Amino acid sequence: MSATELLTASGAPAAEPQTVDIRTFRTTVRVPAASTGGALSVLEHTLPAGYVAMPVHTHARETEVTHVLEGTLTVQVGDGVTRAGPGDLVVKPAGVRHAFWNEGLRPVRFLEIVTPGGIEEFYAEVARAIGAKGKPDMGKVMAAAERHGLRFEMGSLMDLLDRYGVRLS
Fold first, then answer.
1. Which residues sit opposite 28 in a β-bridge?
2. Is the residue at 109 inside a domain?
3. Number of domains in the chain
4. What is the pLDDT of residues 53-83, one digit of tens each?
5. What CATH number did the domain enclosing 95 receive?
6. What sign results for the dihedral spanned by CA atoms 119, 125, 130, 136?
7. What does the alpha-carbon distance between residue 96 and residue 151 come to, in Å, rounded to a whole number?
8. Is 110 among the domain residues?
9. Is residue 32 classed exposed, middle or buried when 0-12, 13-18 and 19+ CB atoms within 10 A define those classes?
10. Are 22 and 43 in contact (CB under 8 A)?
C-alpha cells in the first residue's frame, strides 16, 4: 500500500477521491466522512491567484484546520487576518466567522481537516448550483448553506474584493 492509498475499516480500498469545481475553486475529497464514521473529512482545496472562494462565513458545527501545502493563503479568523505559507496551520473554530483568499501570484493548495465530517456534501451541492458558466442559482446555494449550518455574511464580499484586490471564484 502506498502512502496515498486509503483503506476502509474493513481493509478494502476506499473509493477514488472525488473532485468538484466551484468555478475556479477546486475541492478534492481526500478522506470522506463515510470513511471515518462521520468523525472528520479531509479536503484538498486549490484556489488560483487573485481569488476569494466565498464571503466571510460561520460554521455552526464544524471546526476546520487548514494546512497550507503550496503558495500563500490569506485567512481571516474573527477580526484577525494572517498569511499562511507552506507548512503553516490555521484553526477556524466552529462558531467563529472566517474567510480565505489568495492574494499571491500563484495558486495556493491546502488541506482542510474538518470535524465533524460531511462538509464535502455542501461543496458538491454548491458546485451543482453554481455551474461552470452562466448565472448561479443562489437560492440553491443559500438552501445548501442552511442545511449544512453555514451562515454567509454576503455584505462582506464587496469589502474583500475591494480591500484585497481579489475576484470571486
1. 19, 44
2. yes
3. 1
4. 999 999 999 999 999 999 999 999 999 999 9
5. 2.60.120.10
6. negative
7. 11
8. yes
9. buried
10. no
Q: Is the pTM of this model over 0.85?
A: yes
- The 3-state DSSP class for residue 127 equals helix
What's the sign of the alpha-carbon dihedral 98, 103, 104, 105?
positive
Distance, CA of 118 to CA of 61 (rounded, Å): 10
Structure-block grid coordinates of residue 125: 451541492
Q: Which structural domain range is residue 69 located in?
A: 18-162
Of 22, 67, 30, the closest CA to residue 47 belongs to 22
pLDDT digits (tens, 9 = 90+) for 111-137: 999 999 999 999 999 999 987 777 888
In a 3-state reduction of DSSP, which class is residue 150? strand
- Residue 126 C-alpha cell reads as 454548491
Residue 158 lies in a domain: yes
